[in-house]
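Comment thread on ticket #2218

A.B. wrote:
> Attaching the input chain for the structure job we discussed in standup.
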Amino acid sequence: MPKSIIVEGNTTKEAIEKGLKELNVSKDMVEIKTLEEEKKRSFYSILAPRVVKIEMTLKENVESNSCNKESVKKRNINKNIIEIEEASKRIEKFLNEILDKNLKIDINIKDFIINVNINGEEINNLIGYRGTTINSLQILITAIANKNISSKIMVILDVGDYRKRRQKTLEELAEKISKTVIKTKKSITLEPMSAFERKIIHTKLQDNDKVKTFSKGEEPHRRLVISLK
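C.D. wrote:
> Ran it. Output below, let me know if you need it in another format.
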């Protein structure tokens, strides 16, 4: 049966607006039946409350479409969950095949993002100079995760908390460079960085009312520029 609600208001318009808001639909998606109309005011009833009562019913095709959309949404979510779980297993299998057995691989899924953490001794070779190796490995396992799936999966790789330490270093650099730009009134172009590192500096300075940041160039030589607004 189509969903129906009974709504009251001081006027017909008010009752309809309340009903549409409650059902979260537009007027053409419902049938409206007046149950109690606003009566003409007389001098003796001027203090009596005004009440208009209506019955609002969702049209059958609207309810059906709503159910179908909800069903499709649930199916898509379930499909994404299955895909991301399978992707995490592919990543784990790949890393176990190429990495030293003494290294600890921790994989968890949060907000449809696969977080991969690698810890153990002698892991500096997995980081590389300023993160070149870890960035390349992240690109590789992201490609593995996204093989033959319908929606794109984000993968974040960290090795020995390098990302966290690097973020702190870049945030401190952003503050230092921004002060230099303000003092000298000259733009400063940083060395090539990954998209992850550029985003850290963008985010750190986005609320600075004196400087702005933007990127230029092509990957993998894309650079970040800090200049006066």
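A.B. wrote:
> Thanks. Noting for the ticket: Confidence is low (pLDDT under 50) at residues 40-47.
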